[in-house]
Design brief:
558 residues, Rhopdopsin 7-helix transmembrane proteins, 5-stranded antiparallel sheet
């Protein structure tokens, strides 16, 4: 964990940058903020009269308190340095039509505007509507918006500001860099995880690809880039798509968490609860996109409640991961801490507890860009653990096979493993059968434990007396078998000499007899003939007085 301290420092630095970003005045990038006041639109009202008598506007009540409908929004007097070359910037909202009236120093009034169908022509990155101030010889002094068909979910006029061309260009460049970097990273992560999924087949990899794909679509719609690419796209329809892709991202994130954590983390009621949260997110987002603006505030509140349920579920998942000692809890917490915090801010904004800002509106992409970088590390660590688990499984499998093939007392091959490896070897083979002489007397003299030690010493001597590619096995009580290629055969007498030089337990004298025979060993019947031949030679060695070797003629299978 100490080696990951740099990651914690990076999280802290990014979190600090978020705080600085939210605290930075909008004028630093988006332009000079403009204060506005609101009043509901009534029949017979004219821009000239409203400019002349702005006292009927409400400057204190939050905009969202007015509900949906048609409204007039007037600005306070514009800064003295405002010129006709400046632009008016407002956040994109759900409206049918917006008409902007500009009052100039000489009393003239000019107008411009857009509808939801033409908003794409004015849409800048960050989903900001950028309207040039209509040309006039005098300087602009005040703004008045006539808003028709406003949903007023987050406000009527969001973040109004006066920006010059330099500020507009800086904002576009910064946001283009942000969205471009996120898009490139998202595509790279999709390719990276799909390639790994082809090899590892882990369930969390396609879930993560789905998450990144939904985020990529969400970034395309929320940034306004889709509106710029398709200027004829209705801006309200763009917001429908944006809502669907954001809900898809949340559902994909939950699917990823269920696949990423060990199964006990989502055991019991937590798994069906997470399923219900996903259903709530998808159904409420679909209803929002399909039915808006019908009962708009009810639909929006239902959607916000579904996100709130997701936020309530997350601490329970993390606690369960801690309780079950998940190996991936710290990785998940590291990667998702900032996105979860940002999701909380977005939900607070949805419930009217937090004001809209350009940074807040783009915070999801900022936080998910960080999450993507850290999740790639988390997934890499997850894959490393998988490779370690597979290596351990292979080692255990190899160890199990060795145990199954090994005779436990001597460590040599057992009879079954010896025959499996011996039968089918090409070319002539030399088979040596070694048998310890008078082994019963050895047991009587030094006990069975001493006899076992004698067998281990004999096994070690036989193994050291032959080449590494020779097969050596204990095939009976005190009977051993050695199989070598006839072309590289070892003299049976040389094997006996090695046994004679071996020091035995308690310095007792132990001898052995060896019978050898050479022949083919391609089939099981060849083994029977070869063994019968070598066993006959062993019997001859025993009959000749023991402690000697006999080699039979070449065995020819019947």
């Amino acid at each position: 964990m100490e080696r990951l301290a740099w990651l914690r420092w990076m999280i802290g630095a990014v979190a600090l940058s978020f705080c600085v970003a939210f605290a930075t005045p909008a004028a630093a990038i988006t332009g000079t903020p403009v204060s506005v006041c609101v009043r509901p639109a009534l029949s017979g009202q004219t821009p000239k009269a409203l400019f002349a008598h702005p006292d009927g506007f409400d400057c204190t009540t939050p905009q969202t308190r007015f509900g949906g409908g048609d409204f007039w929004v007037v600005s306070k007097p514009l800064p003295a340095n405002t010129t006709r070359a400046d632009t008016v910037r407002i956040g994109s909202t759900w409206v049918n039509r917006v008409t902007l009236y500009v009052q100039y120093a000489d009393g003239a009034i000019r107008q411009t505007g857009f509808t939801s169908r033409t908003a794409g022509q004015l849409l800048g990155l960050g989903a900001v509507i950028v309207q040039p101030i209509p040309y006039h010889d005098s300087a602009p002094v005040r703004l008045l918006w006539h808003i028709e068909g406003a949903a007023n979910l987050r406000g009527l006029i969001l973040g109004p500001a006066i920006a010059d061309h330099q500020q507009r260009d800086v904002t576009e460049i910064l946001l283009a860099a942000l969205y471009g970097a996120f898009g490139g990273m998202a595509l790279a992560l999709i390719v990276y995880n799909l390639a790994l999924w082809g090899a590892l087949r882990q369930a969390f990899q396609p879930a993560y690809c789905l998450l990144v794909l939904c985020l990529l679509a969400y970034a395309l719609t929320s940034s306004g880039a889709l509106g710029q690419m398709v200027p004829t796209l209705d801006n309200n329809d763009r917001q429908r798509l944006n809502t669907l892709f954001l809900a898809g991202s949340a559902v994909s994130a939950l699917l990823f968490a269920r696949a990423f954590f060990e199964r006990p983390v989502f055991a019991g009621w937590l798994r069906p609860a997470s399923t219900w949260v996903m259903v709530a997110l998808l159904s409420s987002a679909t209803a929002w996109a399909a039915c808006a603006p019908w009962h708009f505030h009810v639909l929006d509140r239902l959607l916000a409640t579904a996100y709130l349920a997701l936020l309530i579920l997350i601490p329970t998942v993390l606690y369960n991961a801690w309780r079950t000692r998940s190996h991936f809890l710290w990785l998940f917490s590291l990667a998702w801490s900032v996105p979860i915090a940002v999701a909380g801010l977005r939900v607070a904004n949805a419930f009217g507890l937090l004001k809209w800002s350009l940074w807040l509106d783009n915070s999801t992409i900022l936080s998910m860009a960080l999450e993507s970088m850290l999740s790639s590390l988390a997934i890499a660590y997850r894959i490393r653990l998988l490779s370690v688990e597979r290596d351990e499984a292979r080692e255990q499998e190899i160890a199990a096979r060795l145990l199954a093939d090994t005779e436990p007392l001597t460590g040599l091959l057992n009879r079954r493993a010896f025959l499996t490896r011996a039968i089918g070897r090409p070319g002539d083979q030399m088979l040596l059968i070694a048998d310890v002489d008078h082994f019963k007397r050895v047991n009587e003299k030094i006990g069975h434990d001493g006899g076992d030690e004698v067998l281990r010493v004999v096994a070690r001597a036989l193994r050291n007396a032959v080449p590494a590619d020779a097969l050596v096995a204990r095939i009976g009580g005190e009977e051993f078998a050695i199989l070598l290629d006839a072309a590289n055969a070892v003299s049976p007498d040389a094997v006996l000499d090695r046994l004679r030089r071996q020091r035995m337990p308690f310095d007792i004298v132990v001898t052995a007899s060896i019978g050898a025979c050479t022949g083919p060993l391609l089939h099981e019947k060849d083994w029977k003939h070869l063994y019968h031949c070598a066993d006959g030679a062993l019997f001859a060695a025993k009959a000749a007085g023991r402690d000697r070797a006999r080699e039979a003629p070449v065995c020819i299978a019947a």
